[in-house]
Amino acid sequence: MTDPLYSILIAVIKAVIIFAVILQIVPLLVYFERKISAWIQDRIGPNRVGPIGLLQPLADVIKLAFKEDLTPQGADKWIYRLAPVLVYAPAVLAFTVIPVGIDLQVASFDVGVVFLLTISGFSVYGLAFGGWASNNKYSLLGGLRASAQMISYEVAMGLSIIAIMMTAETVDLNEIIRQQWGSGTLGLLEWNLFKQPIAAVVFIIAAFAETNRLPFDLAECEAELIGGFHTEYTGLKFATFFMGEYVAMITMSGLMVTLFLGGWSVPWVEIPTSPSMVDMALSIGFFSVKLFALLFFYIWIRWTLPRFRYDQLMGIGWKVFIPVSLVNLGLTAVAGVLGWKWLIPLP
Q: Phi, psi at residue 242, to the nearest 5°?
């Protein structure tokens, strides 16, 4: 087998594996979200379908698959059908550049961060198209809200990522991970979470807004817009929107782990130059632990904090996060000139 064909085959195999794993994580997230919300609200949660309710996600899929697939009168049929795909596909494609183990990713780009931001930004078209094509005023308002919200918080998120690139002096995600390991700090204090705490806080809050999760789910606010941009969607089209939200959560959590929490690096274990299978498995394991910790945080926040008003949402984005991110960029530039590893030098 020639080298190009072998490389293509390996890339396809990795893509299939990661795609299959993501598809398995989504129903688990749905199940755990229901269980965690029940614990927070002092309820029982799913406990009827299968042992301790484990088959509830499967029952939901069967229900959605056999629901009547309706198209609203006056809707733009082609755009109406395309919108769910435009929400789901960019989230999956964006995850392909995130390293889940030592140099283990579907697509390796020197400009991985730029590619990820570019692709993930396409999901806003799906939300806007879905709202507009449904021929429903509530759906249209939801799509407009989603567009304005994602564009606003994408600016703050982009500025926080620029601060990381200035600190690492690279846009290669694997290199950013390697720079977050240090033998003298147990492999922890070199994390960008400690080097760039302001960027980390801005990023995680912007990630909530980008994925339309509470307390920033104004695009599908039931009290005001029924269901927002997906009000008129049923069956598998609604399920695709639903899956797109959870895959976007996984992608944003993976990016947060990569940029701020050391990625696949293992604390107390030096990154090997020639990794063995054990090293690969260990790195994947630690990446997964960090990823699920952030996903738990996503769910915990959703069932803890109340929803913002829309004017508060936009005000925080433009009047707080963007100015703070710009100030952080200035501090990062000063720190770079002075040769500081951290924005505030540690003793």
A: -60, -45
What was the pLDDT predicted at 201? 93
Token pair recorded at residue 197: 């705490």
Angle between the N-to-C axes of helices 77-95 and 235-260, in degrees from 0 to 180, rounded to the nearest 10: 30
The number of helices, as runs of H, and strands, as runs of E, in the chain is: 14, 0
Name the strand (E) or helix (H) holding 294: helix 277-302
Q: What is the pLDDT of residues 246-261, one digit of tens each?
A: 998 999 999 999 999 9
Q: What is the distance between the alpha carbons of residues 192 and 233, in angstroms, rounded to a whole number? A: 41
Phi–psi pair at 104, nearest 5 degrees? -110, 105
Mean pLDDT throughout 337-341? Answer: 70
CA contacts within 13 A on the Cβ side of 127: 30
Question: Are the C-beta atoms of residues 265 and 179 closer than 8 Å to each other?
Answer: no
Contacts of 283 (CB under 8 A, 6+ apart): 101, 102, 104, 264, 265, 266, 275
Residue 101 main-chain phi, psi, to 5 deg: -155, -175
Tokens 């927070």 label which residue?
40
Q: What is d(CA 285, CA 263) in angstroms, rounded to the nearest whole number?
A: 11
Name 145's Cβ contacts closer than 8 Å, sequence gap at least 6: 218, 219, 225, 228, 310
